[in-house]
Amino acid sequence: MAMRKFAVTPGFEVGGTLFKPEQLAVLGSIVGENARIELTTFKQLYVEMDEERIEEVEVQLKETGLQIHPAGFVSKSLITCNFCRGAEDSGLDVALMLDEAIADHPVPNPLKIGYAGCGLGTSEPLLKDIAVVKIREGYDIYVGGEPRGLKAGIAKQLHSGLSSRQLVPVIRRLISVYQEAGKKKEKYSRFVERMTVEKLRVLTQAELEAV
């Protein structure tokens, strides 16, 4: 029996990334007894199951409100805070826009992009590959966080005071540069170190000025 893996997430809202009991019940009832379900560090469930049944299972999961994403070497769905200051104050609409724009792009190594609705950073954005932090009415972008290993470190600021309209073009440009210049299986933190923050700042300047 050929097995294949895909990712499942409920998306997010005020209160965080929450799976509903009925969604988990449907998931457990339809994937089959040989399936494996893994909790990832980026708020997705990886489901590995019989490849022949994946298409029908994905349809049923989407009907419960779940999102389906590819597993593996892609940019992951947005990792967010719990929007504890409310949808408007924390920029929930901006996070939803970002999530739709940045997820599922093929990349040299799995890419984790984080979002925090205020400077408290409860989603630990500076440990992500790319991070957006809302500061009052503007947004700061950071790159190159590394949460694990002997070379763990926080991300470095790339741009500050951006408008919500500038975020998607800049982050998409960062993803495209990584696609074009990143080495196979090269972690984004190492890629940033090799490219330098200064060069990435220059490479994304045109996106800032175009909006």
Automatic annotation (TrEMBL):
Keyword Iron: yes
InterPro entries: NO2/SO3_Rdtase_4Fe4S_dom, NO2/SO3_Rdtase_4Fe4S_sf
Domain Nitrite/sulphite reductase 4Fe-4S, first and last residues per copy: 99-208
Keyword set, alphabetical order: Iron, Iron-sulfur, Metal-binding
SUPFAM superfamilies given in the database record: Nitrite and sulphite reductase 4Fe-4S domain-like
Keyword Metal-binding: yes
Top-level lineage group: Bacteria
Pfam families: NIR_SIR (PF01077)
Name of the protein: Nitrite reductase
